[in-house]
Amino acid sequence: MSQPITPAPRLSLEDGATIPQLGYGLYRVPPSDTARLCRDAIDIGYRHLDTAAFYGNEEAVGEAVRDAPVPREELFVTSKVWKDDNGYDTTLRAFERSMALLALDRLDLYLIHWPVPSTDRYVDTWRALIRLQQEGRVRSIGVANFHAHHIERIVAETGVTPVVNQVELHPWLPQTELREFDERHDIRTEAWSPLARGRILGTPLLDDLADKHGRTPAQIVLRWHVEFGNIVIPKASSPERLRENLDVFDFALDADDLAAIASLETGERTGRDPDLD
After folding, report:
1. Is 88 tagged catalytic?
2. Is residue 86 part of a domain?
3. Which residue ranges does the record assign to the NADP-dependent oxidoreductase domain (predicted)?
4. Residue 4's pLDDT band (boundaries 50, 70, 90)?
5. Long-range contacts of 234-239 (CB under 8 A, 24+ apart)
6. Binding residue positions
7. What is the pTM of this model?
8. Per the domain annotation, does 216 fall within a domain?
9. What is the tally of helices (H) and strands (E) in the chain?
10. Which residues, 6+ apart, have CB-to-CB distance to 259 below 8 Å?
11. Neighbouring C-beta atoms of residue 4, cutoff 10 Å
12. pLDDT by residue (tens digit) across 35-85?
């Protein structure tokens, strides 16, 4: 029988909600596998599922949540409005489509997936999210792939600050300035591509730290995120990897470890810079 895993703690959001610090990121998880893997994740101990309209697997996520052997209030479900639907009315329609697929009474967190400054519709998108929160359709609202200046604009024009900013973040791209900005504004930083899409895992330094702690390189990187207080949503395609990714809350990295990992910073992205979209 597998040893029990220390569960992910729940972090407080500025609006009074709480979010599990580590969740299951469902980007590029095929719809045909999604419900099964989400059920596996919940059985292992995950309570946070991160999907999006663009991922094409919202329906299967909703199925897994409805069938879960735990109370709905224990589970935290995130979805996102895709950039093609930015705009006030288009966002409201996109939300209705997502909720029809999820078939849930409410959504825990709804994010603007990308600002797309070239179309200049993200402020109107944010106004739509504010309305959805005011109507009680969504518990919390936030953004993804926003630079500080994008956030400053939506706050200046609406008076409402997002509670989460989900961005690409890993040891090559630690987003130090953005994390500090988010912290000053009581915004939780959430990391997508937390393992740089797996590319960083061949780094000898991480192998050495894995040997030191009796862990895997992926667990070292995920623990690095935890040490900084990031919310983190690694992808997985098997129960074994799901279990490995969640099992990072019963050890710690020391100051020397953190200093060594800091040396990996290059600024390299695996995705696009939000200002270039």
Report:
1. no
2. yes
3. 27-264
4. confident
5. 234/22, 234/24, 234/25, 234/194, 234/195, 235/24, 235/25, 235/26, 235/27, 235/28, 235/29, 236/24, 236/37, 236/41, 237/29, 237/33, 237/37, 239/37, 239/40, 239/44
6. 113
7. 0.97
8. no
9. 10, 10
10. none
11. 9
12. 999 999 999 999 999 999 999 999 999 999 999 999 999 999 999 999 999
Backbone angles phi, psi at 165, to 5 degrees: -125, 110
One-letter identity of residue 108: D
Q: Is residue 264 part of a domain?
A: no
What tokens does 28 get?
Answer: 């590029």
- For residue 71, with 0-12 CB atoms within 10 Å meaning exposed, 13-18 middle and 19 or more buried, which class applies? exposed
Residue 217: both structure tokens together: 């390189």
- Helix, strand, coil distribution of the chain in percent, nearest 5: 45, 15, 40
The label of the residue with tokens 């995130």 reads 78
241-252 pLDDT, tens digit per residue, is 999 999 999 999
Query: CATH number, domain at 21?
Result: 3.20.20.100
Task: Judge whether residue 1 has pLDDT over 50.
Answer: no
Radius of gyration in angstroms for the set of CA atoms belonging to the chain, rounded to a whole number: 18
Name the residue range of residue 85's domain: 10-199+221-251
What is the length of the chain? Answer: 277
Mean pLDDT calculated for residue range 24-37: 98
Q: Which two tokens stand for residue 228?
A: 């900084």
Domain membership flag for residue 75: yes
Tally of structural domains, the chain: 1
Which residue out of 24, 27, 46, 55 is catalytically annotated?
55
pLDDT at position 2 is: 61
Residue 248, phi then psi, degrees to nearest 5: -130, 15
Q: Position 179: which residue type?
A: R
Mean pLDDT of 197-216: 97
State which amino acid sits at residue 103. Answer: A
